[in-house]
Amino acid sequence: MRLVLYNIGKTDSGYLQQGVADYMKRLSHFVDFSIVDLPSVKKKGNVAPEVLKKLEGELILKTAGKANLLVLLDDKGKMLSSQEFAGWVESHMNRGIRELAFVSGGAWGFSDEVYQSAQEKLSLSRMTFTHQMVRLIFCEQLYRAFTILKGMPYHNE
Questions:
Q1: pLDDT band at 96 (very low <50, low <70, confident <90, very high)
Q2: Is the pTM of this model over 0.90?
Q3: What is the structure's pLDDT at 49?
Q4: Does domain 2-149 have CATH number 3.80.10.10?
Q5: Is 62 helix (H, G, I), strand (E, B) or coil?
Q6: What beta strand segments (E) does the chain contain?
Q7: Cα dist. 35→7, 18, 39, 98 in Å?
Q8: Which residues, 6+ apart, have CB-to-CB distance to 74 below 8 Å?
């Protein structure tokens, strides 16, 4: 199974880039995982958030919409513990899904079209994080999930 994290915009903070690179290296021992940064839509003048969401949504669906399973990382999504997330990942691996796409949206969230196209929504927390931090938090949780599944001494419970 291939896992892909699609993001709107880039990570420009060095410490976040370094953390993401560290977890991507760790994840490479378990799974084919990649991150795809989609260009953010430039806000020109008084463009309404709904217009920005629609333009970003078109880009998301054009690139990530081909995945077998499209999962939105969204504050309205289902909240799982790290153990539950590990089980969630394992159950999808066992279903024989070729590509599992996770999507972190832009500052205004997702368009209605993206919500309608997604099969699932997961929340990383009830708190709000910057879109740049979501990359690192997600990568760490994905790594944690695989160490739980492999019985490695990373997760303490």
A1: confident
A2: yes
A3: 83
A4: no
A5: helix
A6: 2-8, 32-38, 69-79, 99-104, 120-123
A7: 8, 14, 13, 16
A8: 105, 109, 110, 121, 122, 123
